[in-house]
């Protein structure tokens, strides 16, 4: 008689800080509604004060770590918390880690769907605000290789944007509305990393870090994924899994009237 396959054990890991208090209730409701038989929740709080940590301690069935990092910049504090999540998942020998940002609300089937794909790195999809030529746009937070067709159009209409490039190699573009509506699995350069499933092959072998010169214009996950690609991992986005992104309480307008991401404030 054949033994039934065991259910992969999953950790849902979330770095957070007191600035995410505005969406805590919606986030907790979202993760508690996930339909999966063997998953645990871990929050790593890198707030500089204790009040939010004490608030989180009141929540049931949540593992909680206080990240007392001495780093001062927001991005370095986030990197510290992400690495603590990777270390926890490795130490507890989880099969998968869902790295879930504290303002991303997943559908209840996210784990069943992403795990069924049997990929080392795969995300769902959500949207975010981006400044495009001085205009704020709501776009998919995932990027694919720039196609030759789009490269040619840019070269014809606005060649200054691709000055120095003879081909689209190494260039990216956001997933299109058609990509998102397709509900298909696609190989990408950068997925929606705030709802990204990692296998143990990944989180036991790669850590988050960033060179100083990249910290002003790149998020922590982009460099993590660069390292993963160099190790031979392919990266996917499954647009069937659409997550809600509660960003209204996080972004603040700067003196020029543009929305600023807290990582770079």
Please describe what this structure looks like:
Helices cover 27% and strands 26% of the residues. The longest helix has 18 residues, at 74-91. It has a single domain (10-124, 175-247), classed as Spore Coat Polysaccharide Biosynthesis Protein SpsA, Chain A. It has helices spanning 24-32, 51-56, 74-91, 110-116, 148-157, 177-182, 200-203, 220-230; strands at 10-16, 39-45, 63-66, 96-100, 104-105, 121-125, 127-132, 135-140, 143-145, 172-174, 185-187, 195-199, 236-242, 244-245, 252-253, 259-260. The strands form five sheets. The chain has an eight-stranded mixed β-sheet, with helices on both faces. It has a two-stranded antiparallel sheet with strand order 5-14. It has a two-stranded antiparallel ribbon with strand order 7-8. By secondary structure, the chain is of the alpha/beta class.
